[in-house]
Design brief:
CATH superfamily of the largest domain: ATP-grasp fold, B domain
CATH class of the largest domain: Alpha Beta
Distance between the termini: 24 Å
Bound molecules: guanosine-5'-monophosphate
Structural class: alpha+beta
Number of strands: 14
CATH topology of the largest domain: D-amino Acid Aminotransferase, Chain A, domain 1
């Protein structure tokens, strides 16, 4: 499948039309951004690593019965995906307190959250992705109540699969962000990506940060650590 016209250029991925109306190509670039695009750097091999990592994780989720948009790995940086009408909210599940939760509520980083916490954020860089709740989402027509309920159910289903996967590989899935869209049949499908750019992973023993916080906090060895995460899961990059 060939890339045609560009549909959308995000901070780390570019989306292209294809000759098939129902399919798009996602190109994972080396661009790495943080703080709503205020800090941007090119990290060698990051696009390739995230493309392959995303394909690996989405395949695990498909096997577990969770519908994803991923169709095929096309090349180092490109994946073929189903075209979705994306819902403009981010679904976050937190197993351990970190990041914006610590800043907002003054809780201690590393505190276990049992049961896990679910949060919605509006995708809007200019507004710094504000937190929203179910009422905002329905009122403004971003999704229906049924879709909200499905997004929560599926985001927790992903937690069950991935928490175990990372645990077996010696890592703690601290939190992560998912995005969903509607396919041509009206079904809710997991879109966007699951990579160390959109989750927090800590080494279980040492609590070493193995995700995009290495970039946000200037800890170095960003791509090398993503490759280590993949290697622990059995994906050689
Ligand atoms: P926080 O709200 O603590 O900043 O983020 C919670 C989790 O969602 C983290 O794993 C973080 O990486 C992910 N996340 C939240 N917003 C974004 C975003 O706009 N882009 C990406 N890539 N990840 C995000």
């Amino acid at each position: 499948m060939q890339k045609r016209e560009e549909l959308y250029r995000g901070k780390a991925k570019t989306v292209y039309y294809t000759d098939d109306n129902d399919k798009l190509i996602l190109e994972f670039r080396n661009d790495t951004s943080a703080f709503d695009g205020e800090k941007i750097e090119q990290l060698d091999r990051k696009g390739e690593v995230n493309n392959k990592f995303n394909h690996f994780i989405m395949t695990k989720l498909e096997v577990a019965g969770i519908a994803t948009q991923v169709e095929a790995l096309l090349s180092d940086n490109d994946s073929l995906v189903k075209k979705l009408d994306m819902i403009p909210v981010e679904c976050v599940v937190r197993n351990v307190a970190a990041g914006s939760l610590v800043r907002r509520l003054g809780v201690t980083e590393g505190e276990l959250l049992d049961p896990p916490v679910f949060e919605f954020f509006l995708k809007n860089d200019a507004l710094h992705d504000p937190m929203v709740n179910d009422y905002h989402i329905v009122s403004f027509g971003w999704a229906t109540e049924a879709q909200i309920s499905d997004m929560k159910r599926l985001t927790f289903a992903v937690n069950n699969v991935l928490k175990a996967l990372f645990d077996e590989a010696g890592m703690l899935l601290v939190d992560y962000k998912l995005e969903f869209g509607i396919d041509g049949n009206g079904a809710l499908v997991l879109g966007d990506e699951f990579t160390p750019d959109g989750c927090r992973l800590w080494d279980k023993e040492t609590r070493k940060k193995m995700d995009k916080d290495r970039f946000r906090q200037g800890l170095g060895s960003v791509v090398e650590t993503y490759i280590e995460v993949a290697g622990r899961l059995g994906l050689k990059l």
